[in-house]
Amino acid sequence: MMSQTLTIRAARADDRPAMERICAHTWDNGDYIPEVWDQWLADERGVLLVGELDSPERQVVALQKITFQTPDQVWLEGMRVDPDYRGQGIAAQFLEYSLTYARQHGARVVRLGTGDYNQPVHKLAARAGMERVGVFVPWSAEPLAEGPQPATLPLESLDRVMGFLQASPVLAHTHGLIGVHWSWWELSTQYLVDRLTGSQVVAQVTPLGDLAALAVIDFTPGEDEMWISVADGQPEAVRALALAIRVQAGQVGAAMVRVMVPDLTWLRDAFRCAGYGFGHWEGELWIFERRLIPEAEGYNRR
Question: Of 33, 159, 244, 301, which one is least surrounded by beta carbons within 10 A?
Answer without folding.
Answer: 159
